[in-house]
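User: Hi! I'm working on a homework problem where we have to compare a predicted structure to a textbook description. Could you give me the structure for the chain below?
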Amino acid sequence: MTFTLRPATRADADWLYALRRTTMQVYVEAAFGHWDEAAQRGRFHVGHELANMEIIEVGDRAVGLLHIERARHEIFLANLQIQPGFQRRGLGTAVIRRLLDEGRQARLPVRLQVLKTNPSARALYERLGFAPLGPGDVVHDRMIWRPD
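Assistant: Happy to help. Predicted structure tokens:
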């Protein structure tokens, strides 16, 4: 699926929060036992977090969030959230493959953590070549993809 990325801004904060709630609330509640409205909303009003977020667009429509943290030694996929109507259509795969191409070109591993309560996301990451990376914490599994 063809997509573009644009930097997220404070003007996107309410939309980003709504996306997070739509895509993640069930998994967060299953993992942590509750949804902390203030904490979840607050993430999108913090400038340093927004600096690493991009809006995924299909055509002229915002359909997802990509949150990447780049370091000298790795690329960390902090978050990928896609509106339900655009899930299971190849968009997540396309976004991640672009990130893996970046990792391959820079010869950097791509690391992530996934909620244990989200097996479909874990299956996607495994299909794209991510492997377990030691023990995670109580609610997350850590995974890594290494360039060839």
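For your comparison, note the following. The two ends are 25 Å apart (CA to CA). Residues 23 and 81 are 7 Å apart (CA to CA). Good luck with the assignment!
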